[in-house]
Amino acid sequence: RPAPRPPEPVPSPAEEQPSPGDPGASPSSESPGESPTAPAPSPEPSAPESPVPAPPTEVPYRSPDEIIWLDRPIRTGDTAPVSGGDDSGKPIVIRTPLYEIYEIRFVMDPAGALHVQGRVKNLSTTRDYPNPTVYVGMYDKLGVQIRLLPVKLSGRPALLFRGETGEFDCSFSKFTTTVGAYRMYMNP
Question: What CA–CA distances, in Å, run from 145 to 1, 41, 93, 142, 182?
């Protein structure tokens, strides 16, 4: 008896099948009216097109616990404008879920005092702040605290109502240590 013939391997859809006109093609068992069709490989899913990211327009939010370094140190007698309320041209905003401090400016007056000015907004929808006070800390070039001053909001009653804004001006009298950084927060 002749040995049985092993079954011919069935080509997988990923393998190329020879076309019927090729010299190495084997005869097809399909009827003459049908053309051989290999299952088309499923198209690979294309990644969803993501929009081109817009240039960053967000303000750099900072934590009240963070020391913010000035662009350049401030020395007694400086008359040049001091920049420290912005980061790469964007205004710095100190923010918590309850308040934000923004429009931070540094101004040297003719007497040599450094004024740290800004605005505070109550972000709470449920709480008013009684006797709102902003605390401004100054640090030397190495990050050692020089002084911490509390300042009340200007022209405000004893409450900063929810959603309202107040201004402050904290004055550091003539100082002898070079200032390199600051930190500020509001009483909770």
Answer: 102, 68, 21, 9, 9
- Residue type (1 letter), 143: G
Place of tokens 């049985």: 4
pLDDT in tens, 123-181: 998 999 898 999 999 999 899 999 999 999 987 778 899 999 999 999 988 777 888 89
The whole-model pTM stands at: 0.64
Reported confidence tier of residue 62, pLDDT bands at 50, 70, 90 = confident
- Give the whole-angstrom CA distance, residue 87 versus residue 71: 9
Contact 154, 166 (CB under 8 A): yes
Could you give the C-alpha distances from 151 to 37, 100, 129, in angstroms and in order? Answer: 83, 16, 14
> Facing residues of 167 across strands?
119, 154
